[in-house]
UniProtKB/TrEMBL annotation:
GO terms for cellular component: membrane. The chain crosses the membrane at residues 29-48, 594-614, 634-658, 664-687, 694-713, 752-774. Residues 568-770 form the ABC-2 type transporter transmembrane domain. Gene3D superfamilies: Methyl-accepting chemotaxis protein. This is YhgE/Pip C-terminal domain protein. It comes from Alicyclobacillus acidocaldarius subsp. acidocaldarius (strain ATCC 27009 / DSM 446 / BCRC 14685 / JCM 5260 / KCTC 1825 / NBRC 15652 / NCIMB 11725 / NRRL B-14509 / 104-IA) (Bacillus acidocaldarius). Its main location: membrane. One of its GO terms (molecular function) is ABC-type transporter activity. It comes from the Bacteria. The keyword Transmembrane helix applies. It holds the Pfam family ABC2_membrane_3. Keywords: Membrane, Transmembrane, Transmembrane helix. It is found in: Membrane.
């Protein structure tokens, strides 16, 4: 229970100020008045602008980058970053070796270590050239044991450094990209020219397409005509095969006739040889007859003998003449048959030659209509074979004609020879018949011996000529036999060739039919080709139109690419977005931001410390009433709190440099806040004494953790979020923030209202407490305090 010192009289509400007359109490009061400024001033001075001295924060930088090649140029991003940091004073950069950095981080010499790895540039190049390649990486090592806030600042600085490095790399990438785009513009110009050329070529191709369509139509018509010609050629080849068959039959007949002619020639040669011998014998007889006629005088016996020999010789000569006539007739017949066979062979050869000629002409037409077919080896062989067949058939026909002409002449000569031989035989028969009268007229012969001798001489000469002619006939017959033998061999060869010709003509007919079928297919394909070429021509027209549009677009794109400004593009890509920051409140430094918190803390702690020096319950004198007692205490505490507030305001606004748009409002609000804190703590300490001070400390802790003085209360646990708005320091911090940074005046009015409620409430509580104290004071014995 409070007591009144002895010897004191009842005083007024200002009696508590009498305590300040003591020098010791005055010193204590002055020290208590400095409590808020020690809190607020020292804290604000220390935290006024910590980021303004980041150049004092030691950071080790280790560059191990080996560099890399990028698009033909040397890139060393690590070296470039180090050079940039040398001119950057945002942190205290120390460029050291890995060993020095490790040692400095171990002993706390460095707050952070920045390591640029060896493959930093290489990764940057790979990242630019390969999708999904790992990004270049900077390693930051912070030493939270050195200072946690320093670690936080270092990590934030590392993030900023990585962002700026990425920005520089983006500039390099973009510069390379701009160079490539400019080169692409040149390439696009070339592509546009090529597209123009393509369009021109398309137009020309479109114009030529009509010729292609016309040519394809002509090809189809020619293929149709080729098919018809090949059909005719096939028919001609069939006729050729038939003619060759007939020629084979004629050759067979020719060969048989030549056999018979050869046999007749051999018989003629034998008969002519015998006739020649008989003619020689007759000539000898004539000689003898002449001799006998000359020697007619030698005797009739010799003449009779000579006449007998003459009769015998005439008989033999008659026989030879008959043989000669028979051989000549056979020769004539064989020669006639040979001539007929030769004429038939010549006719067949002519047909073969005509068919082969028609085939050759058809093949030449086919070659003109289809040059590709004409180049094939099979077609060339067929064309050469047809030409050779035509030439051989023509030569065979000519030879057969000559052979037929010779055979006809031979037949005529043989007929004449047969007629002569028959006449000779008739004459010889007559001579033989006249031999008997000759014997009877020996006498007459003897008489005309001289005439007979002369006739014998002439007969001998004629017989010699006859023998010579017979020998020539025999030699001619032998030659004829040899010729007919050779002709027989030639006829056999001719027959073999004709058989081959017949087989070739049959194959030719089959081949022509196949060619006719192929020509029909060619005609069909040519028709389809003509139709397809029509569609192709339309497509070429579209190609030309598309190429013209492509050329125009390429030229436009190239112009746009060349219109790009490299610097502008690099700036646009490197800084695609600019940030416009709007700050609601003029808070320039950490000090300005923390001033509401530290000033509220200082004013509250100042009143709390005051409760230790000044008694918040015991009166200095005997109070007149409980109300006077309370207000005498309240006025003293508030006066000292105001002194604390004024001193703190002077230091904070004058020396520290807190900026406020409302200086007078700031001072008045600090006085109001001090009044509120004084009213609250006076009531608590007066009510509970030391436990009241403990509650004041608990209240301070709650306010420090839930009033958004440092971090937003929304980041705190839900308990502090719920308690904070109901505490007085929440209103003081909010009010000081408005006065420093500005804001909604309605919030300031709410803060004033809350503080007024707190002040009035605790004043009322204090009045009630001290009224109770006053009632008990009369029953208590006085004690010395």
């Amino acid at each position: 229970m409070a007591s009144v010192p002895e010897g004191t009289a009842r005083g007024n509400v200002f009696q508590e100020f009498a305590r300040l007359r003591r020098p010791k109490m005055m010193v204590q009061a002055a020290g208590i008045a400095l409590i808020p400024v020690l809190y607020a001033g020292a804290f604000l001075w220390a935290f006024w602008n910590p980021y303004g001295h980041l150049d004092r924060l030691p950071v080790a930088v280790v560059n191990e980058d080996a560099g890399a090649s990028f698009r033909g140029e040397r890139l060393n991003a690590g070296r470039d970053l180090v050079e940039k940091l040398r001119s950057d004073h945002s942190l205290g950069w120390h460029f050291v070796t890995p060993a020095q950095a490790s040692a400095g981080m171990a002993d706390g010499a460095y707050a952070m270590e920045i390591v640029i790895p060896r493959d930093f540039s290489k990764r940057a190049v790979n990242r630019a050239e390969h999708t999904g390649a790992p990004a270049p990486e900077i390693t930051s090592v912070t030493n939270d044991r050195y200072n946690y806030i320093a670690g936080v600042i270092g990590r934030n600085a590392a993030v900023k450094l990585a962002s700026e490095t990425a920005l520089e790399l983006a500039k390099s990438y973009t510069a390379s990209l701009v160079d490539a785009l400019e080169s692409s513009g040149t390439g696009l110009h070339k592509a546009a020219k090529a597209a123009d050329a393509l369009a021109s070529g398309g137009r020309e191709l479109e114009a030529k397409g009509e010729l292609l369509v016309s040519g394809a139509s002509q090809l189809a018509a020619g293929a149709d005509r080729l098919a018809g010609g090949l059909e005719q050629a096939s028919q001609g080849a069939g006729a050729l095969a038939q003619g060759a068959s007939q020629a084979v039959s004629g050759a067979d007949r020719l060969n048989a006739g030549l056999v018979r002619l050869n046999q007749g020639a051999e018989s003629l040669a034998q008969g002519a040889s015998s006739w020649a011998n008989q003619a020689r014998a007759f000539g000898e007889a004539g000689d003898k007859l002449g001799e006998a006629a000359q020697e007619v005088g030698q005797g009739a016996s010799q003449l009779a003998a000579g006449a007998g020999k003459l009769t015998t010789s005439l008989g033999q000569l008659d026989t030879g003449a008959s043989h000669l006539a028979s051989g000549a007739e056979a020769l004539a017949q064989n020669a006639s048959q040979f001539a007929q066979a030769a004429n038939q062979t010549a006719a067949g050869s002519q047909q073969v030659a005509s068919g082969a000629k028609q085939l050759a002409e058809g093949l030449q037409q086919l070659a003109k209509a289809n040059p590709a077919l004409a180049e094939t080896p099979a077609f060339q062989s067929l064309l050469a074979t047809s030409a050779e067949v035509a030439q051989g058939a023509a030569q065979t026909a000519s030879a057969n004609e000559q052979l037929a002409s010779g055979a006809a002449g031979l037949s005529q000569g043989a007929s004449q020879l047969a007629a002569g031989a028959e006449s000779l035989a008739s004459g010889l028969k007559q001579a033989e018949a006249g031999a008997a009268p000759l014997q009877q007229g020996l006498q007459q012969l003897a008489q005309g011996a001289s005439g007979v001798a002369q006739g014998g001489t002439r007969l001998a000469a004629a017989s010699g000529q006859l023998a010579t002619g017979a020998s020539q006939i025999a030699q001619g017959a032998k030659g004829l036999a040899a010729g007919t033998g050779a002709a027989q061999q030639a006829s056999s060869s001719l027959r073999g060739g004709l058989v081959q010709l017949q087989g070739g003509a049959a194959k030719l007919a089959v081949g022509n039919r196949a060619l006719a079928g192929g020509a029909a297919s060619l005609a069909s394909g040519a028709g389809k080709l003509a139709n397809g070429l029509g569609a192709y021509q339309a497509g070429v027209g579209k190609l030309a139109s598309g190429s013209e549009a492509l050329a125009a677009n390429l030229a436009n794109g190239a112009s746009k690419l060349q219109a790009l400004h490299g610097g502008a593009v690099i700036a646009a890509v490197a800084h695609p977005v600019s940030l416009h920051q709007v700050e609601l409140g003029d808070i320039q430094t950490y000090g300005n931001g923390f001033a509401p918190y530290f000033l509220s803390l200082g004013l509250y702690v100042g009143v709390l410390m005051m409760s230790v020096i000044f008694p918040f319950r015991e009166p200095y004198g005997e109070p007149k009433s409980g109300v006077a007692w309370f207000f005498s205490k309240w006025l003293l505490v508030v006066a000292i709190a105001w002194a604390q507030a004024l001193i703190a305001d002077a230091v904070v606004l004058g020396l520290v440099g807190v900026h406020t748009a409302h200086p007078l409002g700031f001072v008045l609000f600090s006085l109001f806040a001090s009044t509120t804190f004084a009213s609250i703590l006076l009531a608590l300490v007066a009510l509970l004494d030391n436990p009241g001070r403990f509650l004041g400390v608990v209240l301070l802790i709650l306010q420090l953790t839930s009033t958004s003085g440092t971090y937003p209360v929304s980041l705190s646990p839900r308990f502090f979020q719920a308690v904070g708005p109901w505490l007085p320091m929440y209103a003081t911090v909010s009010g000081f923030r408005y006065l420093i940074g500005g804001g909604d005046p309605s919030l300031m009015a709410r803060d004033l209202a809350e503080l007024a409620i707190y002040t009035a409430s605790f004043i009322a509580i204090g009045v009630l407490l001290f009224a109770g104290f006053f009632r008990r004071l009369g029953r208590a014995e006085p004690k010395t305090v």
